[in-house]
Amino acid sequence: KALISSTIVDHFGNDLGIDKLVDGSGDASSEFWRSKIYEVCELKKKPLIFTDLVGSEGYIELTRLERAQDILKECATKMCENAIMNGDPIPAIVPFHFTVKHFLRASRILSKTNNHILMTGHASTGKHTVMQLVAQAHGMEYQEVSVDKMKLFRIWGSILRNALLKAATKTSIVLVIRCNDIYDNVFHDLYCILKGRFKHLLDHDTVMQVCERFRDDAVSANARGELEGGKMITASLTDEDVFDYFEMTAAKHIKVAITTNGTKYLYHLWNNHASLMQFFSVDSFSSWDKSTLKGAATEIFQLSSAPLEEEQIKAISESAIEIHKCTDLVAQE
Question: How far is CA 327 from CA 201, 321, 331, in A?
């Protein structure tokens, strides 16, 4: 009880109008559990999140999303700078709470070994923007593949081969796969990659090129005792040993995010590709609620160079929300 009551004071004391325990015994007073507690702690939906992305304190407890918003603003700024350098359209990113929570969740999932993410839900709710922010925050290279637009799987094979070759150079990659249909061949290939056994996915010439290109790296890794099974430092490595090193390194430096709109194909994934799904954590993106839309629209117009008054911003924001709702309704139909 003492721990719970002190936690409430620490996290919600200002909102509750209290700065210390009611009695000196450390027991939670009955007034702690009245409707005001519910209003502040539940209705306001104050977050309690654990993350290692904020500050230099390491893995910490986060109760104020504003601290994480600063990280997102830095990532968004860098993304805009990169877009300008590459001549790409400049993304308009507003890191409101909806974005922050999904960003922290995706960051936590992808920071775990052998863990990847399946992002599902309504279209245009920010799934790919979140992944771009995560890649920027973690210093990963963002690669997006729309499987739906591929008519030939050999195109997929070429993209996959290039991603594996880059990952084997210890370049961290997040491979984001847009998938709104059933592609059993793609799902099978992904399973082989995440298991770290994908020699059969490459043709003979590519395998030989891999063995030649990564032999020196494999020898160095063997000298450090990093090869699976362990080899004598003085022993010469076979092509099989070199390719094992290639598979191990590539799988370690590649993260996969599957994005899909709605839940139409989730049953097929879980039913027919259960072995693949064991690598994935699911994050569901719901439609933005009215308060989220209002906050986003207001911040966008406040950043505008136009001299708008508060009432004008409010009116324009309300109009933008109605337009968004109509667009969302048409998209769902």
Answer: 42, 10, 6
* 3-state percent helix, strand, coil for the chain, nearest multiple of 5: 55, 10, 30
CA distance 317 to 5: 40
Residue 44 has φ and ψ, to the nearest 5°, of: -80, -10
Nearest-angstrom CA–CA distance, 269 and 183: 10
Calpha distance 78→72 (Å, rounded) = 10
In 89-211 the beta strands, taken as DSSP E runs, fall at: 116-121, 141-146, 173-178
pLDDT-based confidence at residue 175 (cuts at 50, 70, 90): very high
**Which residues touch 210 (CB under 8 Å, ≥6 apart)?**
165, 168, 202, 242, 243, 246
Around 48, how many Cα atoms within 13 Å sit in the side-chain half-sphere? 7
Whole-angstrom distance, CA of residue 131 vs CA of residue 285:
13
| Reported pTM | 0.70
Pairing of strands 173-178, 141-146: parallel
Segment 191-212, tens digit of pLDDT: 999 998 889 889 999 999 999 9
pLDDT given at position 23 = 47
Helical (H) or strand (E) element with 66:
helix 65-86
Return the exposure string of 131-147: e unless at least 16 CB atoms fall within 10 Å of the residue's CB, then b. bbbbbbbbebebbebeb
Q: CA–CA separation, 35 vs 40, rounded Å?
A: 9
**Which uninterrupted H or E stretch holds 51?**
strand 49-51
Q: Which residue has the tokens 């793609």?
A: 186
Going by C-alpha positions, the residue among 185, 190, 135, 138 that lies closest to residue 164 is 190
Supply the DSSP string of 200-266, one letter for each residue: GGS-HHHHHHHHHHTHHHHHHHHHTT-STT---TTSPPPHHHHHHHHHHHHHHTEEEEEEEESSTTH
**Contact, 93 vs 74, CB < 8 A?**
no
3 state SS of 62: strand
Cβ 279 vs Cβ 117: under 8 Å = no
